[in-house]
């Protein structure tokens, strides 16, 4: 069984080293400043001004259309109050035009607990040492010659679930970026009573993604903290 143990041990070491690399890379890219998003999706920043112009155009078009309905050019169709409509249109034009600054403030507020989680001091983690610790514990319980294989299976189950959570967090980061860079159009939807539900849904989605990203990072940090503590104190159990 020595050859099998050697092969399985080598595979486990390579697997855990790859996990170390993925963990450092993904967690290092995530953040609330959207720098990584703009690095990998440079067209989003370039097309942002297009969305701003589109949003202002939508608001003005809706304002003119609602005024036409108020003056009876479209008979039998309900229209919004012209004074309230004008105030809302002016307000949402400002929101769309300054959406970049507004989103930056929101990200600073929402990113504060994220920074706290990412900068919290925790025991150093080395996934490469995890397999040997698993073998040590299993060997104290079993005496068969397939300890490395059993340890590898246990390790794969834990690592697979960790990787799923890691990539879900990255997916939420990308979704948050799309919501942020389409914010001007979302603000344009708030200027009309008939499309205000779209704006409210966007606000809920933005708040939900911010919250879920923080929760995902919290879970990742808890997991890595557990692994670090486990590797440092394998006999504590």
User: Please, how many helices?
Assistant: 10
Q: Compute the gyration radius: what is it?
A: 26 Å
Which secondary-structure class do the elements indicate?
mainly alpha
Considering DSSP H and I runs of 4 or more, what fraction of the residues is helical?
over 70%
Largest sheet: none
Question: Kindly, what is the distance between the CA atoms of the first and last residues, rounded to a whole number of angstroms?
Answer: 28 Å
Q: In percent, how much strand structure appears in the residues?
A: under 5%
Return the average pLDDT rounded to an integer. Answer: 74
Which term fits the overall shape?
elongated
**Uncertain stretches of 5 or more adjacent residues:** none
Report the strand count: 0
What do these coordinates show?
It is built from ten helices and no strands. The protein has one domain. The mean pLDDT is 74. It has helices spanning 2-29, 35-40, 42-46, 48-70, 82-97, 99-119, 130-139, 147-181, 183-189, 196-232. The protein is elongated, with a radius of gyration of 26 Å. It has 237 residues and is mainly α.
List keywords for this structure.
mainly alpha
Secondary structure topology:
Layout: H1 2-29, H2 35-40, H3 42-46, H4 48-70, H5 82-97, H6 99-119, H7 130-139, H8 147-181, H9 183-189, H10 196-232
Briefly summarize what is shown.
By secondary structure, the chain is mainly α. The chain is 79% helix and 0% strand. The longest helix has 37 residues, at 196-232.
């Amino acid at each position: 069984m020595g050859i099998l143990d050697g092969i399985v041990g080598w595979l486990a070491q390579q697997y855990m080293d790859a996990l170390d690399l993925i963990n450092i890379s993904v967690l290092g890219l995530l953040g609330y400043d959207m720098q990584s998003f703009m690095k990998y999706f440079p067209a989003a920043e370039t097309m942002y001004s297009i969305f701003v112009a589109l949003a202002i155009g939508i608001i003005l078009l809706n304002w003119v259309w609602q005024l036409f309905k108020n003056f009876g050019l479209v008979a039998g169709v309900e229209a919004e109050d012209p004074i309230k409509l004008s105030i809302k249109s002016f307000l949402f034009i400002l929101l769309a035009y300054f959406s970049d600054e507004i989103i930056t403030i929101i990200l600073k507020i929402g990113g504060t607990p994220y920074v706290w989680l990412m900068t919290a001091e925790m025991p150093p983690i080395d996934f490469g040492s995890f397999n040997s610790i698993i073998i040590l514990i299993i060997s104290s319980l079993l005496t068969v010659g397939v300890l490395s294989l059993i340890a590898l299976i246990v390790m794969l189950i834990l690592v697979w679930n960790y990787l799923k959570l890691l990539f879900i967090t990255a997916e939420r980061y990308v979704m948050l970026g799309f919501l942020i860079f389409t914010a001007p159009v979302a603000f344009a939807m708030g200027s009309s009573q008939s499309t205000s539900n779209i704006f409210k849904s966007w606000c809920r989605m933005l708040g939900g993604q911010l919250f879920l990203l923080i929760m995902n990072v919290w879970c990742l940090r808890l997991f890595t903290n557990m692994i670090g503590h486990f590797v440092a104190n394998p006999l504590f159990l």
